[in-house]
Each structure stands twice: as C-alpha cells, then as structure tokens.
Amino acid sequence: MWMGRMSRRAFALAALSVPVTAQGAAARSQGVARSAEGLGGCSVPRAATAGRPRRGTAGMRGVWLATVANRDWPSRPGLTAAAQHRELIGHLDRAVRDRLNTVIFQVRPTADALWPSPYEPWSEYLTGTQGRDPGWDPLGTAVQEAHARGLELHAWFNPYRIANHTDVTLLAASHPARTHPDWVVPYGGRLYYNPGLPEVRAFVRQAMLDAVARYPVDAVHFDDYFYPYPVAGQTFDDTAAYDRYGGAFTSRSAWRRDNTDRLVKEMAVGIKRIRPGTRFGISPFGVWRNASTDSRGSDTHARVQTYDDLHADTRKWVRHHWIDYVVPQLYWNIGFAAADYAKLVAWWAGVAEGTKTDLYIGEALYKTGAAGQSTAWQDPAELSRHLALAAHYPQVRGHVFFAAGDVAADPIGAMARVVADHYG
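RESULT FIELD:
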C-alpha cells in the first residue's frame, strides 16, 4: 500500500561539458544579466537581520517550499512580478516567525527553471506559459532575501521529471525534450528524461549546476524522484539504453541503480568543484527496503521500496558519505502498522551512526487535520511527539516540514504546537 504517500503526490504532481542546446540562445535573451540583481525592476526590501543560521545549536528547522503545480508558491500562475515577490517574502517571513532556519525552495520542478537558465525554459508555474520571462529572478531574490533574514536557502531540483502530461508539443518550442526526443520516456501519464543515457545525466547535471554557479545557495537538494514510482500495468521503456549500456550488469535493476549512483556521485563532485562549502542533500521515500526483503532493512511492510522500485540505494549514499545530509520522508504516524514512525527513526539513526552524513527527518505537516487522514493526524500533538521521540537519537539533527503552504495554514495548530514545544 502507499500508506498515505500518494497524498503528497496528489499535491506535488498535477562538470559542465554538454554543449548548450537551442534553448541556450533563447534563454540568454530572457535577461540572464539580471541573475544576481534581485527582482529586476521592482524594489526589493531587505530585512534588518542579516547573517546565516547556525544549526550547530538549533539543529535543522526546515520547510519545503514547493512550486510544482503551484502547490505552495506562487499561489497561481500569471501573478505580477510584484505580487509573486510579496508572496515569496511572506513565506520567508513566516519561516522566521516560526523560528525555522532553512527554506528548501523548488527551483526546477519539471525540467524548467525559476532563474534565467541558458539551458531550460522559464517555468510555466510563474506566468502560465512555459518559457515566458516573468520579469524578475525568483531564485536570485530568494537567496538574497533568505540570507538577509538569517535563513539558509537550499535549491531543490527534480532531475528527470519533464512534464505532468505526455504531450511534447505542449512544451516550449526550444525545450531540450523537443530538440532531443530520444531522451524522453512517457510513463504513467507523464514525461521523463531517461536516466540510462549518459548524455541525459550530463545535461541535467549541467542545467542544475548552472544555478550553483550563479548563486550562493547553501545546498543543492533532491527529493524522492529518480526513476519514477511504479505504475501498475505499465513499463518504463528504457530497453534500447539498457541494450546499449547495460551489458556489464546482472540485471536491469542493477544497471538502473548504477545510473542513479552515477548522477549522485557526479553531482556531488560538480557542486564541490563549482562552489566549495555548498552542501548536497537528498530527501528519499522513507523506506529503503523492508526487512522481509533484506535483513538490513527496516521493520516495515511498505509496498514501495526505494532500492527496488525507484532504483535508488539511499542507504549506500549515507554510509559512503556521497551526500552531506539525508532527509527521509517519514510521513507516517507513531504506531502506524505498515511503517511505524518510531521504528523508522530508529532505523535511519542506525544507518547514519558513525557516518559523516547528517540525518534530518521529513515530517508530514500536510496530513495534520486533513480530511481522510487517520485519528492520529487529527491530534495537534502528533508532530510534537515526533520531535520528542527523535530527540532520543543523537544522530537526528533536525526536521523538515512538508510544506510551506501548510505551515501558513496550520489548520489544527500542529505547527504552532511544534514551535511552542520545541523551538522556544
């Protein structure tokens, strides 16, 4: 079973060696020179409190700010630049009021960009039309304004998702997926880049590292999407790539995991080379493998296992310190039979113990008070109990809440309870 994880899906879905594609010239004409200049035409007020967060004392107190399908920001496509800016500042100010210290800002939701990228088009979630210049630089402004408030700004990228539909003609004319149709795999009603092609991995790495080169982001952040979540009765068609590149592997699954490993390792190297000191973090689905599948796995009964279904060996990345931090999405309540929050915190603490990878826990704020959720999620104290439980594990160095819209709405006061109980 999906164990409630599809609720987030319903919300969240609706080095530099590759030559620049045709998108490059078009994007450069869309105001790349503004990349470090903030709003570009609108005044950008600066907060009085400057500086950077010190997680050594406070730990990670983070929030995801999702832009795909206008989940959290902007509230709808087509707002003026000034209105988008006001909403963005509102989220940053709310994070400060709730004593958070990190905003994880989704800047590449669907093979597009929330900055003037020379490789990919402007995101449709800004203007309603992919490729249309919004008249300002959201990522550049977010970095500047977050730092002015003492917040870290982590740039959140989705590596392979192209679109939440299968019609390539709906993409901007200069989109790399249109100029390289051989890179594209339709699956489950969506379009994805094929992770099995070396040129795809090189391109997406190049597109993401462009933001790292332009802006002093505090970290690069991936979520749980590598190979897509399985869809019953459908096959992710990467046969041609497997026939060409998979000969040295015992199975297609092993080859796919190696493709994902390569992206993670190469991205880590690129980040450190371009901007030393910038961290690299990943937020995977909370179950690596069930113990019934692998004795090293967790005491869970999840239908989805990251290692087997998303072809992402998240445990390896932590143990080998390929990433600086990991934020497993433990989106279940304490005592949930198929995936008990308490058991998973203990399991992940054991994985992180003795490593150089920081462990933070992803928290399902979006479930609190939501219709259709279990009784546990109707209790404003559930999330506060999560933090109290995790505090018994020294490996757990903080928490990240999904997501900014829910921090603002807080329908039953669960976030207010967390702040009062733990962030005083």
